[in-house]
Design goal:
By secondary structure, the chain is an alpha/beta fold. It is 41% helix and 22% strand.
């Protein structure tokens, strides 16, 4: 019985260590701060970095390609939700362009923030 508990503790330690290595968003962005947090199942992740590069997941795309990629992904998902990760320094015009695409495609959008 004691060897079984040793194995269980080793597995527990292994899973605790590996779960901290998993990163859902591989891009390092400085997100704006907010005191309110909304959680949703993220089907689609779109990011804009400080160099105004658009990312669909981790793939670099231009703004023209973004509509087609969102539409293809949204048609294959039930109740699609876009999580928009935008660096603090990005002008609001670029954010609104992506939000307009999501609005025209009738896809829910959430702006990701860092907790205060």
């Amino acid at each position: 019985m004691s060897s079984m508990t040793d194995i269980i503790f080793l597995l527990l330690i292994f899973f605790m260590l590996t779960s901290t290595l998993v990163s859902p968003n591989a891009l390092k962005l400085l997100l704006p701060n907010s005191s309110s947090q909304t959680r949703a199942k993220s089907n689609i992740a779109i990011s804009i970095d400080k160099d105004l590069k658009y990312y669909f997941g981790t793939e670099v795309v231009n703004l023209g390609e973004l509509r087609g990629k969102i539409q293809a992904k949204a048609s294959s998902e039930e109740d699609p939700t876009i999580v928009l990760n935008v660096e603090k320094s990005v002008p609001i015009d670029n954010v609104v362009q992506v939000m307009n695409i999501g609005n025209e495609l009738k896809v829910k959008m959430i702006l990701a923030t860092s907790p205060k």
